[in-house]
Amino acid sequence: MPRVRALLVAAARAGEALSYSALLAMLGTRFTRPKMRALCKTLDAIDAAGAAAGEPELAVLVVRESDGLPGQGWWTGGHALRLGHDGAWEGPAARALVDRVQAETFAYWRDR
After folding, report:
1. What pTM does this model have?
2. Contacts of 90 (CB under 8 A, 6+ apart)
3. Does the structure show a pLDDT above 70 at 86?
4. Residue 3 DSSP symbol
5. Are 70 and 59 a contacting pair, CB within 8 Å?
6. In angstroms, rounded to a whole number, what is the distance separating the alpha carbons of residues 107 and 75?
7. Domain boundary assignment for the chain
8. If you average pLDDT over residues 73-97, what whole number do you get?
9. What percentage of the chain exceeds 70 in pLDDT?
10. Distance CA 59, CA 57 (A)
11. HSE on the CB side for 88, CA within 13 Å?
């Protein structure tokens, strides 16, 4: 968990999102479904700890290569609901939410 968090904080400071496969590659592994599931559980734990510390989302920075949006687990795992979104996982409203939350995360970490 600390290594993944450090990579996400570095990405946030740089103002960049990471694809799932890019993050797994940084961790020295290739994309597989089991690795993806393990990564998603780690992202959930990172955000739970961050929320308890008053930090913004970091999992929102991990996105699909195809459309630059977080995967299904981010939307159904409660992240989007906590942010007031209970709509579609794609489209303009989803993009607007992700853009807003990513901007908040970038701003928070840029100054730390």
Report:
1. 0.91
2. 67, 69
3. no
4. H
5. yes
6. 22
7. 2-110
8. 77
9. 93
10. 6
11. 7
